[in-house]
Amino acid sequence: MFGLPPTVVGGSALIACSFLALMWGMSGKRERNDATDRLGVGPVNLRERQLDRSVGDRVLGPAVDSMGRRFRRWTPAGVVGDIESRLMMAGRSARQVERILTTKVVGGIVGVMAAWMLAPGASGFMKVVAILAPPFMGYMQPDIRLKSLASARQEVIQNSLAGALDQITISVEAGLGFDVALLRYAEAGKGPLAEELARTLQDVRLGATRLESFKQLLARTDSPDLR
User: In terms of CB atoms within 10 Å, which of 8, 179, 186, 187 comes out highest?
Assistant: First the structure.
């Protein structure tokens, strides 16, 4: 094809498939939507909710979830806990752990296939690299991507904190209660900090204690100033 060696074409195709799997594995609705659903805000139409999901979620989702549950049983609890923590910091649902684990395994398999195609054309040290690097990168790419998403979101939260505190302080000085001031910012504000504060207040409305709700907020964030 276009005069390119078959190994290059095959390797490019495998990398493209791995990239598409990674993008699908990182997709998903935000946690705030899940919290809104639990509160029952607005009429719930199950058919519309199903149609609102992507084709990949409706077609591949059940199979991926089934495989992911098996992979989860074989994965150390510490690794699963780390993925759950990063998912929350990235604003994703912790229920996506199975999807991430499946994406990691698929990436590793694709990497093995890419190494099998690339290794024969290499020699010496590059042969070792061609054998080890593709599987390692394929398996670790979801972790790298998730860490990047979590870091970017936490940076936005950190940068938004000063403005949020100013608005909350003004509201309290105007005579509003602290919870009402938080709610006002959560409803009027935009971005991940407003989303997290809204979820915290929703947890309180669902029956959690204020202390427990704020502990959960800190578990979903990594901002020393917010703590």
Answer: 186
DSSP 92: B
Q: How far is CA 181 from CA 75, 197, 211, in A?
A: 43, 11, 17
Q: Are residues 123 and 168 in the same domain?
A: no
What mean pLDDT do residues 33-54 have?
45
User: Would you say 110 and 138 are in contact if contact means Cβ atoms under 8 Å apart?
Assistant: yes
State pTM to two decimals: 0.71
What residue numbers bound the domain in which 100 lies?
6-150
Rounded (to 5) percent helix, strand, coil in the chain = 80, 0, 20
Query: Which among 116, 81, 92, 85 is positioned nearest to 27, based on CA atoms?
Result: 92
The full 3-state SS of 146-175, as one line of letters, equals HHHHHHHHHHHHHHHHHHHHHHHHHHHHCC
Query: pLDDT tens for residues 87-144?
Result: 999 988 877 888 899 889 888 888 888 888 888 888 888 888 888 999 999 899 999 9
- 98 part of a folded domain: yes
**Residue in the block written with tokens 């990949």:** 56
Please check whether residues 25 and 132 belong to one and the same domain.
Answer: yes
- The candidate with the shortest Cα–Cα distance to 113, out of 2, 1, 21, is 21
User: What span, in angstroms and rounded, lies between the C-alpha atoms of 137 and 111?
Assistant: 7
My answer on whether 100 and 201 are in the same domain is no
Give yes or no for a contact between 225 and 154, defined as CB atoms under 8 angstroms apart: no
